[in-house]
Structure formats: structure tokens, C-alpha cells
Design goal:
134 residues, 7 helices, elongated
């Protein structure tokens, strides 16, 4: 697996698409991709995707809110993110609920810098923990 393929899979996984970047990351490092290259590729793709999610929530407020509230998971994410704000971002690394929380961060207008620091560092940390497990 190439760095570009890992980047793309991590990017797609951090959008609302049902995709697992962890499996691609695991495959990359078990097939002799240098760990640093895998960390940079996966983290960069994942962070850029959560930034996209944030801005979709921020700039397409009405459309994004309507789409998000059309599912039970989206409603729960919106309610949780609206109620707890930055603290909700501590769960943004989790599968299923994490990606909607990054949209909610834009919807509720959390400060972008803090959003990137909190959610981005957790995304990097998740891949680091995976390297320790392999």
C-alpha cells in the first residue's frame, strides 16, 4: 500500500462514509511501510477530512443540520456536541460518533484552532496507539 492510498483511505474514513482507516493503516505498517510515513499519511488525511467536516457544518449550516438530524446517530451527536462543546471533541476519535461530532463542531461554531488542536491530536494519537498494538 502506498502513502497516497493510505492518505486517501484515512481521508475517506473521516468523512461520513462508512470506511475504516485503521484497517488500511494496519495493512500498511504490516507490509513494511515505515511507521513515520504511515503516521504522517494517515494523520494528514484524517485531519484534512475533519477540517472539511467542520467547514461543511460551519458554512452549510442549514443543509448540514437537516442532513445530520435525519438520523438517530446524527441527532445524538448534535445534542451531545451542542451541550458539551469542546468536551464532546474528546470523543471525536471514536468510530461512528466521532465523524458526526466534527460536523457538529462547525455547526455550533466552536473555535477552529481549538477544534484542530483537540480533534487533530486525538486522531494522531489513535494511529500512534495502533502502532504500539502491532
Amino acid at each position: 500500500m502506498s502513502e497516497l492510498a493510505l492518505f486517501v483511505s484515512a481521508f475517506l474514513a473521516a468523512t461520513i462514509l462508512p470506511f475504516s482507516s485503521e484497517a488500511a493503516f494496519y495493512l500498511a505498517i504490516t507490509n513494511d511501510m515505515p511507521i513515520l510515513n504511515a503516521m504522517i499519511s494517515a494523520s494528514t488525511g484524517n485531519i484534512l477530512a475533519i477540517i472539511l467536516n467542520y467547514y461543511l457544518g460551519y458554512f452549510l449550516y442549514t443543509k448540514t443540520k437537516t442532513k445530520l438530524l435525519s438520523s438517530k446517530l446524527g441527532k445524538n451527536s448534535f445534542s451531545f456536541g451542542h451541550r458539551y462543546g469542546y468536551y464532546a471533541l474528546l470523543l471525536s476519535w471514536l468510530p461512528l460518533i466521532g465523524d458526526p461530532l466534527t460536523l457538529v463542531a462547525g455547526l455550533v461554531r466552536l473555535r477552529f484552532v481549538w477544534f484542530v488542536v483537540i480533534a487533530g491530536s486525538l486522531r494522531v494519537g489513535r494511529y500512534y496507539i495502533l502502532t504500539l498494538m502491532v
